Known about the structure:
heterodimer; A: alpha/beta; Flavocytochrome C3, Chain A, domain 1; Methane Monooxygenase Hydroxylase, Chain G, domain 1; 8-stranded mixed sheet; 35% helix; B: 259 residues; Ubiquitin-like (UB roll); 2 domains; 4Fe-4S (chain B)
Amino acid sequence: xxxxxxxxxxxxxxxxxxxxxxxxxxxxxxxxxxxxxxxxxxxxxxxxxxxxxxxxxxxxxxxxxxxxxxxxxxxxxxxxxxxxxxxxxxxxxxxxxxxxxxxxxxxxxxxxxxxxxxxxxxxxxxxxxxxxxxxxxxxxxxxxxxxxxxxxxxxxxxxxxxxxxxxxxxxxxxxxxxxxxxxxxxxxxxxxxxxxxxxxxxxxxxxxxxxxxxxxxxxxxxxxxxxxxxxxxxxxxxxxxxxxxxxxxxxxxxxxxxxxxxxxxxxxxxxxxxxxxxxxxxxxxxxxxxxxxxxxxxxxxxxxxxxxxxxxxxxxxxxxxxxxxxxxxxxxxxxxxxxxxxxxxxxxxxxxxxxxxxxxxxxxxxxxxxxxxxxxxxxxxxxxxxxxxxxxxxxxxxxxxxxxxxxxxxxxxxxxxxxxxxxxxxxxxxxxxxxxxxxxxxxxxxxxxxxxxxxxxxxxxxxxxxxxxxxxxxxxxxxxxxxxxxxxxxxxxxxxxxxxxxxxxxxxxxxxxxxxxxxxxxxxxxxxxxxxxxxxxxxxxxxxxxxxxxxxxxxxxxxxxxxxxxxxxxxxxxxxxxxxxxxx
Amino acid sequence: xxxxxxxxxxxxxxxxxxxxxxxxxxxxxxxxxxxxxxxxxxxxxxxxxxxxxxxxxxxxxxxxxxxxxxxxxxxxxxxxxxxxxxxxxxxxxxxxxxxxxxxxxxxxxxxxxxxxxxxxxxxxxxxxxxxxxxxxxxxxxxxxxxxxxxxxxxxxxxxxxxxxxxxxxxxxxxxxxxxxxxxxxxxxxxxxxxxxxxxxxxxxxxxxxxxxxxxxxxxxxxxxxxxxxxxxxxxxxxxxxxxxxxxxxxxxxxxxxxx
Lengths: 584, 259
């Protein structure tokens, strides 16, 4: 075991982690621990753009953006946070441009903007051009630009280091962050990083679904590390299903395709979104579009022999426009489906895309251990966190924005905290838990395999807690996850070595997915209403009287060692917007 | 390439989409042996699936110790460049049907060979040491350099100026180009195509003011002049970047000092 000492440690090197690192490295001695090389992070998969009311191409202002974000989140958004997001969006985009990001340009040479789902002029009058973009690889450009600036600032990275535990100590009755424990992939060695401030920016957890746009590596490691140390997870029942994933594969096809004029059609060729969202049509918010697609499929208007998908039609758009604005996604259709988007519609289905919930934080990125109390020295930003700016449903282009605004805020806040505080003492045997976990997996002779359990988990999640949910389906999922958790105790791996043991780490990741899937299902079972991405067929309406509040899920361990989940609730922060019925 | 297989697959589609293929994988694990060896795995797979799916089938259901890097699985993270049938490709962007061929005599499929990319030290199975690759990248100042006061709004750039370096912004740092370059194989000191591509991305960005410095770095004995224009890099690039052309443009800029 090695012990390292830094002022600030950042867990994860996607957009949020690197944006934080650029700030914290200027102000404190910082280490970034990342399980992937930085440019491999899934920020790079984001396509369509980053919202900011620059008003470069038409009238717009950040107040409209705030409203759209709150409405898009079905009034579960904390309104003070949404206001910060929309207001600071403008500088966040300009910061990136100054760092070198090659945005597409208008004829005047300013940053070009395009339409995106749920973003509107004057509180829902009509779609507005708010998304700043770089072709359909905006996330790739953000990731590259941030990494380039990390190189420029001399940010110190520990690549292929898996953070497996969060150290929390009791300082005079106050739970305080002391650092993290990491596993080095290349050697199998365990490292303790003592740090005054820790920022989690480790991304989402979509891999507990089967059809997902998420990378294999998005296994909720940060959420699980904090949850297992007694910290709550907020709003985990809210997961976004992006309407346009490649049929069966789940690979993302940007909403920008519809922003450029693409149309969704059923097997009759009908533009069905006109029925469900007369004003915004194909550009209604993602939860609305995904439900509409499944309604079409359920009512027998799906395409293909099994009627299990619909079409994204780009054939009426000029090939030059597709080449200039949507080169990557048209290439995906050619590579993976053998389809030419100039002439043929693309088969799509909703794909598990984004966790609205996560580690609860305030607007400085400080992690909360209950509804109001912060954990000194602990921060989170990006998809791993829940501020909450996305509420029950995130608007497209607001995640690339979130990582930049709250990545920057948490980077500054953590470094400033580190400047004013001393290291707290590490607990005795800080690596104890990780050593035991790794040893148990390495020496287990059980008869269960990681791949089997993961497959069954993904299948049950797709079948039972996806776009449509009922008490019955969620209970089925909870029961199945419980069974899989029992079987997980008997899991064994074949690779017993220390060098690049990805067999071992996939087993660790599966443990994280199982914990988080259970939190998600249990939180969903208790929310007896429909709101944003959480749709209960047995409770189809939103219930503001009983449920306009955030879910807070805690792991409880009984005296006999049995684990359970305790649910609590936290009020939504409301400033100037009263909940209204949500129509597009 | 694989038309006979395609026909066969389509004929039999109604019955079962699965075919049997053999992956012949170059294995190496210094914890077990200093010698690398080939190992064959026979699996059932839908030919429309990716080589990455085939590797996962082996890792998940046959041999958990098979080691490779991967993440996004659709060609944008750059983790899984490897040598497939002797050519550098991303495992997640290569479909089985496009690289499988039948032995006409026996009707069996020929094995698909999979090995680590060349020119970088193999650490285990398909995993190589990427540090020298990233070091070359860092050495070319891969970031925007400007002088003077920052404007309050964005810097202006015409659509044409933005288009000038569009191709080289696509790079995902997968190392498929650099590890396909014979000059790089023979001499690890050469910067390699990927680093030059990333220098190009800034040299030809109208907002940047460090083009001269980057050109001086690439004028080095291990810089652009080592390129022998074999076009391996262009063929290998999974993003379709015209890598050799970018290198030639940097050479021309060095001669004319115009960029």
